[in-house]
Write a structure and sequence with these properties.
The protein is α+β, with helices and mostly antiparallel strands. Helices cover 45% and strands 15% of the residues. The chain has one domain (8-59).
């Protein structure tokens, strides 16, 4: 959890939750389908848990 109280996931954690590959999650971030934070240009990517949940809901059918 970050100081602002927001829970964030690594790309691996998000991939596991979404049942996707780590590379697919990174592509979703780069395409703007998942919001994310990155420490510097080549730093670690973290994804807000709420963003992962929203994406998951938007891809569910039925």
């Amino acid at each position: 959890m970050k100081p602002d109280g927001e829970i964030r996931m690594t790309t691996k954690e998000a991939a596991r939750y979404l049942e996707k590959s780590d590379r697919t999650v990174r592509n979703l971030c780069e395409s703007g389908k998942l919001s994310y934070y990155q420490d510097g240009e080549r730093g670690k990517i973290t994804i807000p848990y709420s963003s992962v949940l929203d994406y998951d809901k938007s891809t569910k059918k039925g």
